[in-house]
Amino acid sequence: MQLSFKKTSSGSKPRTLAELGSGEAATLVHLDLPNDFANRLMELGFLPGGPVCAAFSAPGGDPRVFRVEGAEVALRRETALRIQISPAASAA
Amino acid sequence: MSSCHGDGDGHKSVSTATVEGPAPVGQRLIALVGPPNAGKSTLFNRLTGLRQRVANFPGVTVEHRLGKAQVEGHYDVELVDLPGIYSLSPRSEDERVSFDVLTGKMDGLRKPDAILLILDSTNLSRHLTLAAPILSLGLPTLILLNMADDLRARDGHVDVNALSKSLGAPVALISASKGEGIEAVERFLTRGIAVPKPIQLPVLQDVPHCRQWARGMSESAGYRHPAPPELSRKLDGVFLHPLWGPVIFVIVVGAVFQTIFTGAKPLMDGVQSLVAMSGAWVGGLLGPGLLKSLIIDGLWSGVGSVLVFLPQILLLFLFIGILEDSGYLARAALIADRTMARVGLQGKSFIPLLSAYACAVPAIMATRTIENKRDRIATILIAPFMTCSARLPVYTLIIAAFIPERPFIGPFLGTRAAAMMGLYVLGFVAAVATARLLKSSILKSERTPFVLEMPAYRRPTLRSLGLRISDRAQVFLKRAGTVILGVSFVLWLLASVPLINGHTPPIEQSLAGTLGRTIEPAIRPLGFNWKIGIGLISSLAAREVIVGTLGTIYGMEPGKDQVGLQQALQHDLSPAGAVSLLVFFAFAMQCMSTLAVVRRETGSWKWPAIQFTYMGALAYVSSFIVYHVLR
Asked: Is the pTM of this model over 0.90?
């Protein structure tokens, strides 16, 4: 499996949604998922460039609820691992 | 609000390219479309006076449902309620239904003449995305922003006129649950809805583009996002707390079982004495004879012994209603996802399984929301293991007859409630083990991703809970008045022939007795005698029928009809046999309606046949083992 080691221009390490702790916010960058599924997630509010915030999770931390545009959507860790984010500060 | 732009009302419909007058006279078909959990069915119920099932989680409606709009003086408007969709690219069976209806591909249903697009006003910038594909259909469309009361309460705002102008279609703020703004909807339904003005729509396949468009639309309407639902978040902080969440879950479940047992007791005693008193009164009027035997010993004991369980079943439905309407169900699915993943299913399968606690039939329908076909079939196959409400009378009867009531965990949980909980757990374990078996063999598939939208918590309304309970009472009474009455009659007949010297025979020598004795060798190894055997056969129609059957059998036995069903059972069943019977009912597939719905949903008799055989074999073998271990 190809892991992304690309450095962003600012030099900060790309992170995935799975690394976001409860209450942390970030900006979505890319959905590395099959087209069909990526489209559904985008319909639900996971849009590249848009804000995302990690909320509550099931006991054990998986699946976790993410807030996107006022909606709360639960995703498994395996899905969150394939959604790249950048720190919220850079988007602001 | 007259956004029916264009020609004045006085003109006869001079159709132009953009505006069509009132749709042709005659039946008009209007579709209710919107994202999941936007309140389509609530509005449908309000407009038609029907009782389409509603609850607070996405994916409650899984098939289309027709209903006539109840508008004074207009009887030509027919509404079709549809499952929720996010776009016009369907991914699951329920979304496919909406797509087919909207594009006129649904068998036996013509293409709708107009559309009511229902969006959640508290989530507008996101929900407006669906407006693009819907407006592109070119059908007359009225856009309804639902949950207006919630939007106001949380200090949100939207300029309806501005939005209407940008979208080229009429827009109205409503609250389907409170009835706010319904007159506006009815006005549109009767006067006709205009075709939307052509506006610049985004490229539909390009989701980010659509979203951008939707955001632009909501901004142009001065949309102010409502404040975050603080209460919902606080509640999630408790219900999804790593420690308190599971603890609260266990306490709630325990309380439910205890209430079903002890809380329902006075009501059940009430029904029992009512049945007994009315029976004695009618019996007195009839005088001795064959007619009295039929009505009192046959029908009254049969139907009456099932009726006793009505309060208990209604109580169960009240609890399920609170769970579903409050939004807790989606959280339960979230918590269960890991367990479900371990057996090869996903959290979404958990929602149908939870509805199966009420009845397997709607649960099997609810599997339509599961995108993966193999996951869906696996969920259908395990759903009947969940303890449905029809098992409740059987469990209660046997537990009350064989398990003495003692405190089990302090004063909080009695032994009987604990035994009941154990049976619910047993059903769940059987379901999960079967899922694991299926998913690692014939229904193996790639792991499907889990995505579930969390609805905000809402306070269940008394009206909706009341409707659920009265609907259920009707279903139950109807069943008592048809299936159980019919079985009781047939059984009385079988137990009354052949006449000996003009008198009904002792039940052992009747036709029913002979039949029972014929099958007795097959069920003796499980610890059942021929009377239970007759009950088992009759329960193939529906599980609770066995209670009515035993009521009739014992009602006809001289001397036994006085002591009540529980004592009669104690006389006929050993404790080991009682446990064996409970296990049998936990596993066996005794429900014609479930088999029929599995046949319909899977498209062949193959799966119901496999299901019936598997569950029957599991029930027989387990009961056999249990009986021989305990004996």
From this structure: no
Q: What angle do CA B349, B122, A74 make, to 5 degrees?
A: 30
In a domain, B397, yes or no: no
List CB contacts of B104: < 8 A, sequence separation 6 or more: B110, B111
Superfamily classification of domain A15-85 = Ferrous iron transport protein A (FeoA) (2.30.30.90)
Nearest-CB residue to B91 (from A40, A45, A75): A40
DSSP character for B224?
B
Asked if the peptide bond before residue A63 counts as cis, ω within 30 degrees of 0, the response is: yes
**β-sheet bridge partners, residue B286:** none
Cα B78 from Cα B68, distance rounded (Å): 4
What was the ipTM of the complex prediction? 0.82
- How does A11-43 read in b/e, with b if 16+ C-beta sit within 10 Å? eeeeebbbebeeeebbbbbbbebeeebbbbbbb
Nearest chain B residue to A69 by CA distance is B126
Read off φ and ψ for residue B66, nearest 5 degrees: -95, 150
Mutation site for B-interface testing, chosen from A22, A27, A41, A43 by largest number of B Cβ within 10 Å: A43
- CATH number, domain with residue B119: 3.40.50.300
Distance CA B481, CA B472 (A): 14
pLDDT tens digits for B276-330?
899 889 888 887 888 888 888 888 888 888 888 899 889 988 988 998 899 988 8
The parent domain of residue B134 ranges over 28-220
- Give me the residue spans of the domains in chain A: 15-85
Whether a cis peptide bond, with omega within 30° of 0, leads into B498 is yes
Closest approach of B576 to chain A, Cα-based (Å): 39
